[in-house]
Amino acid sequence: MRIPRPAWAVGGAVLVLAAGMVHAATTAEAFAATPKSTVLTYLRTITGTSIVSGQHNKEPASSPAQYTQQVRNATGQYPGLWGSDMMFRAEDVANRQLVINEAKAQWAAGSLVALTWHACSPTVGATCEFDGGVKTQISNAQFQEIVTAGTNLNTVWRSRMAAVVPYLRQLKDAGIPVLWRPFHEMNESWNWWGARPGANGGAKIYQQMRDYFDSQGLDNLIWVWNVQDNPAGGWANYYPGSTYADVVTLDAWYKNYPSAADYQQIQSIAAGKPIAIAELGKMPDASLLTGQPKWTYFMIWSEQLLGNNSTAEIQATYNNPRVLNRGEITFGGGGGTPPPTPPAAGTGKIRAVASGKCVDVAAANPANGTAVQIYTCDVGGTAQQWTIGTDGTVRALGKCLDVAAAGTADGTKIQIYDCNGGTAQRFTYNASTRDLVNAGSGKCLDVRAEATANSTPLQLWTCNGKANQDFTLPA
């Protein structure tokens, strides 16, 4: 549930500086194309011994890794699982591609991928606000119409499902298994699909989605079934059956952690399938991890990371020997091709090779949206003093080099903006071709129109090997 309640870039060793950290720095490898069975086998293998750390990244879709970056800032490590959503608000649905791009980048970097879907009710528009759209009530008659083939509401709902298929298919085509969690917390009444036990309730709409997505060839989806820790119990009344669910999960919101009874109830339903805590607000402590060792992953809900946990608590969990972070997850022999490396860390000038001029923040203005350009190299000016981060960011004047509006079209403006962890602010550098490539688009930093005059702006452009896309970085 999304309402408040009581990086991609790796490569090379991560230098851990925060006090109290005990995990060894590791070199993460990219995950190769992998069938979902490999991830399921992995989760079964670690059951009882280890748990994968996870972090959800809710809206806006334009910043699909902002909370994952907060983990990195607090711990020096990235979560072993990146989570996000297929979204519901109009501006976020329009940016679903950015979520998919981030999923690809996270997988390439060595993190598992999880997606939830806060779907709008078929009784409202295809996009909606949370209140009145996702968090809404529909009648039993309306729900039965949704799950009855050939009815108007069923036709609407099938069109909503069809709209997300092309995005999920991109992940299938890339060989990326997805922990797919639809109709979450189906024992709760806050959502339109919830509080409907029995064969014709939540279980039926879940089964129908799986049947439809299977018919679309989405065999990369790991079907995650989910309830909330409602003390009313009876969670098995919502279960779609062992042939429909691959992983059985619990959201812990009525209390900080699942109780012993919760833990047993989930295991009973799972009947040997992997189990996990799909949402919680409090970092699992050592007592929980040792007392309930069969959870295979946990996922902290977005704003709860810093809103409900101290830095020390976050660090303690990420450094618990049982917890597996990015770089510590291997499938058999490990990963595949190493991911693109971020620029080597350093501070100084970035030079445009064709003109010999420096990459410059226009008028040394630190405001969000200020254009980045080329200009005659000065001595000691802060507008040309760039810090290259090991996380793939390029920073000046306290802001990040940024692709405006996370655009992907040729000609998109390059600017500075508040750092937010999104792929629009992360770059890889190819030392042999001297290209700076944006992670969100796969396109190159480019001096507009191959010009060499002062104040020529930088833009995003398809990589083409021309000299106006060549840059040298500070050592």
Summary?
The protein has 475 residues and is α/β, with parallel strands linked by helices. The chain has helices at 36-46, 66-75, 90-93, 96-109, 140-146, 152-173, 202-215, 260-270, 286-291, 304-307, 311-318, and strands at residues 51-52, 54-56, 81-85, 112-116, 178-181, 221-228, 247-252, 275-280, 295-300, 323-324, 346-348, 351-352, 357-361, 372-375, 386-388, 394-396, 399-403, 414-417, 427-430, 435-438, 444-447, 458-461, 471-472.
CATH topology of the largest domain: TIM Barrel
Contiguous low-pLDDT stretches (5 residues minimum) are: 1-22, 24-29, 333-342
> What level of helicity do the residues show?
10-25%
Overall CATH class of the largest domain: Alpha Beta
Strand order of the largest sheet: 2-3-4-5-6-7-8-9
Name the overall outline: globular
Secondary structure tally, helices: 11
Tally of DSSP β-strands = 23
Number of separate structural domains: 2
Q: Roughly how many Å apart are the termini?
A: 46 Å
Keywords:
23% helix; disordered N terminus; Trefoil (Acidic Fibroblast Growth Factor, subunit A); 8-stranded parallel β-sheet; TIM Barrel; alpha/beta; 475 residues; single chain; 5-stranded antiparallel β-sheet
Description:
With 475 residues, this protein is α/β, with parallel strands linked by helices. The chain has two domains: 36-324, TIM Barrel; 346-472, Trefoil (Acidic Fibroblast Growth Factor, subunit A), CATH 2.80.10.50. It is 23% helix and 20% strand. The chain contains eleven helices and 23 strands. An eight-stranded parallel sheet has the order 2-3-4-5-6-7-8-9, sandwiched between helices. A five-stranded antiparallel sheet has the order 11-15-16-17-18, with no helix packed on it. Helix 7 (202-215) links the parallel strand 5 and strand 6. Helix 4 (96-109) runs parallel beside helix 6. The protein is globular and about 70 Å long.
